[in-house]
Amino acid sequence: MGFFDSEIVQQEAKQLFTDYQSLVQLGSDYGKFDREGKKIFIEQMESVMERYRIFMKRFELSDDFTAQMSVQQLQTQLSQFGMTPQQMFDQMQMTLDRMKAEAERAG
Fold first, then answer.
1. pLDDT digits (tens, 9 = 90+) for 48-99
2. What CA–CA distance (Å, rounded) separates 23 from 42?
3. CA separation (Å) from 43 to 23, 31, 47, 83, 98?
4. What is the pLDDT of residue 89?
5. Secondary structure E strands in 1-107
6. In this predicted structure, what is the pLDDT of residue 3?
7. In this model, does residue 37 exceed pLDDT 90?
């Protein structure tokens, strides 16, 4: 069975995408959140990023051709911006850390 044939993988990918999309949509009102709202938003975004990091690691470790192609595709897309997947995750974390520090100061 291929990596993407797994119903669990499909459900997890769908849930991860849905959660991320919801947060991005919610984030458009980030400036209107109070301090606690900002902290909760950041925590939820960190949680989604961690789930995504784990999901991608499972792709990398899989010997499934489709999973390996997905990893290669992401690496190719990111390389156009001069970035690796690890740098992408690091950048996201730095942004969230900065948002967290700003939320603390705003309190």
1. 999 999 999 998 999 999 889 989 999 999 999 999 999 999 999 999 999 9
2. 10
3. 11, 16, 6, 25, 13
4. 92
5. none
6. 78
7. yes
pTM: 0.83
Residue corresponding to tokens 């992408």:
88
Amino acid sitting at position 37: G
Say which DSSP state 35 is in: H
Residue reference for tokens 């459900």: 11
Q: For residues 53 and 4, what is the distance between their CA atoms, to the nearest angstrom?
A: 17
